[in-house]
């Protein structure tokens, strides 16, 4: 049995923790503010501490700093319902063992306890930070809290990072935040959209060229790899790199050097590389469109950015921010959003994600004739609220299935039966991909597919 301290100003949370911990065979020590928590650590020496980040009479972040001085080897887990990337970074920098978003899931608590009790946190120097994340990286949802935690851990090193997620989720914002929170924040941040540059110009754009290297090369020009210096090079939509440039990028990552076009002189590549893709690169590798060795080089650390439909509770927070930004840009004074309008925003599937929400709010601010935005002011032009967008990994799964059937018809009933076989198999493929995407959550999978849970369960029984 171990002593576990829980500090939270909400009595219900403390009582729930106490019942859970006692059921797990531990002794629960409870505090309602940071000062009480520090005193209990001083006197009782708990094995693990759970601290709410925001409490009256002594907040959790301040208490964390004091506890690290008193008991540097005691694992401290910060809990918050209002976390930001800055909060996550501060907690990690101050030596928190982990960072837990609210509402707290007991399964996560059990796993954290197992790690904390068997792997004591080593002593760490205490530092503070006042770094601010980009304001549009907002979110109180559990998936965003998990993203903030991973970003905070990755900001302190120069590992190559692969950011994944659908178009419009904010992958470049994540990359910029990693750069701004890292050791090279004062160095250049160079962003390249690999899909936006014509293929015949892309190599020179990336690596630069000497005068006369090709017909239109009138003078020497440095490329993006060189311009990044000791900062960060961000390759967006890296899956769109032509295959021969994938090979060249792999060599740069292996040798940390490159040459301008038309030159044999080697130039050191000293920047951090961050890549992003809205394609499922594992599928691209399987289809032969992306090099497997390059994928593993890029995927040293992975940051999946959630789609907006996975973070419904963040929509009103984001919408409010975008209203303020649109007021400033357009010169209006919209004071809020009507409740039924918020409901309409939350019922929409947002296939264009945060970018689409930003544009929709800007249009609504422009259209509004009163002091608040009403449902009448909204123009959700793609109108897919009743049919949640299918995630790209589901589309890729079906695409791969079709390609296999065309290439190997003998394995799917013969060339005359492919269409019917695909119709029979599509349901199973969709269900499997949807369950994978939602980590086995049948309610979420059914919502994603646009069917009710009982229908999904029947189909699962039919498959078994």
Low-confidence stretches: 119-135, 382-391
Distance between the termini: 42 Å
Name of the CATH superfamily of the largest domain: P-loop containing nucleotide triphosphate hydrolases
| Topology, number of strands | 14
Q: Tell me the strand order in the biggest sheet.
A: 2-1-3-4-5
> What structural class results from the helix and strand content?
alpha/beta
What would CATH call the class of the largest domain? Alpha Beta
Gross morphology is: globular
Instruction: Provide the CATH architecture of the largest domain.
Output: 3-Layer(aba) Sandwich
Please outline the major beta sheet: 5 strands, parallel
Helix content: 40-55%
Write down the overall mean pLDDT. Answer: 82
Features:
about 475 residues; alpha/beta; Rossmann fold; Helicase, Ruva Protein, domain 3; 4 domains; five-stranded parallel sheet; 19 helices; 14 strands; about 45% helix; about 10% strand; globular
Describe this structure in words.
With 464 residues, the chain is of the alpha/beta class. Helix 17 (418-437) packs across helix 18. Strand 3 (48-52), helix 3 (60-70) and strand 4 form a beta-alpha-beta unit. The model is unreliable at 119-135 and 382-391 (pLDDT under 50). The chain has 19 helices and 14 strands. The protein folds into four domains: 3-118, Rossmann fold (3-Layer(aba) Sandwich), CATH 3.40.50.2300; 157-304, P-loop containing nucleotide triphosphate hydrolases (Rossmann fold), CATH 3.40.50.300; 308-377, Orthogonal Bundle (Helicase, Ruva Protein, domain 3), CATH 1.10.8.60; 392-463, Arc Repressor Mutant, subunit A, CATH 1.10.10. The longest helix is centred in the C-terminal third of the chain and has 20 residues, at 418-437.
């Amino acid at each position: 049995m171990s002593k576990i301290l829980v500090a939270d100003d909400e009595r219900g949370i403390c009582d729930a923790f106490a019942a859970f911990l006692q059921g797990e065979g531990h002794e629960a020590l409870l505090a309602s503010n940071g000062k009480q928590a520090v005193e209990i650590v001083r006197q009782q020496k708990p094995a693990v501490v759970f601290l709410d980040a925001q409490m009256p009479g002594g907040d959790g972040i301040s208490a964390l700093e004091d506890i690290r001085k008193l008991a540097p080897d005691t694992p401290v887990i910060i809990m918050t319902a209002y976390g930001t990337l800055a909060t996550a970074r501060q907690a990690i920098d101050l030596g928190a063992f982990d960072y837990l978003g609210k509402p707290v899931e007991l399964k996560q608590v059990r796993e954290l306890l197992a790690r904390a009790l068997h792997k004591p946190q080593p002593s760490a120097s205490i530092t503070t930070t006042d770094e601010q994340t980009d304001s549009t990286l907002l979110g109180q949802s559990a998936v965003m809290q998990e993203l903030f935690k991973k970003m905070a851990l990755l900001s302190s090193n120069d590992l190559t990072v692969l950011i994944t997620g659908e178009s419009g989720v904010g992958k470049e914002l994540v990359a910029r935040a990693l750069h701004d929170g890292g050791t090279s924040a004062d160095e250049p941040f160079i962003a390249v959209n690999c899909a936006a540059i014509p293929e015949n110009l892309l190599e020179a754009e990336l690596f630069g060229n000497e005068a006369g290297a090709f017909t239109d090369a009138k003078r020497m020009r440095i490329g993006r790899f060189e311009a990044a210096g000791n900062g960060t090079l961000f390759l967006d939509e890296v899956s769109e790199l032509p295959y021969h440039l994938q090979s060249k990028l792999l060599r740069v990552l292996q040798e940390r050097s490159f040459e301008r076009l038309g030159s044999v002189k080697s130039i050191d590549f000293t920047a951090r590389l961050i890549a992003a893709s809205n394609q499922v690169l594992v599928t691209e590798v399987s289809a032969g469109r992306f090099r497997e060795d390059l994928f593993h080089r890029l995927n040293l650390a992975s940051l999946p950015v959630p789609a907006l439909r996975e973070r419904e509770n963040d929509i009103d927070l984001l919408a409010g921010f975008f209203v303020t930004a649109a007021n400033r840009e357009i010169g209006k004074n919209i004071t809020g959003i009507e409740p039924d309008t918020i409901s309409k925003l939350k019922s929409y599937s947002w296939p264009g994600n945060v970018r689409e929400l930003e544009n929709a709010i800007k249009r609504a601010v422009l259209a509004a004739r009163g002091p608040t935005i009403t449902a009448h002011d909204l123009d959700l032009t793609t109108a897919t609220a009743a049919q949640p967008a299918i995630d790209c990994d589901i589309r890729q799964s079906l695409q791969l299935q079709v390609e296999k059937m065309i290439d190997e018809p003998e394995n799917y009933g013969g060339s005359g039966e492919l269409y019917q076989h695909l119709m029979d198999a599509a349901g199973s493929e969709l269900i499997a991909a949807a369950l994978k995407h939602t980590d086995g959550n049948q309610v979420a999978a059914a919502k994603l597919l646009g069917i009710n849970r009982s229908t999904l369960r029947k189909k699962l029984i039919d498959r078994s």
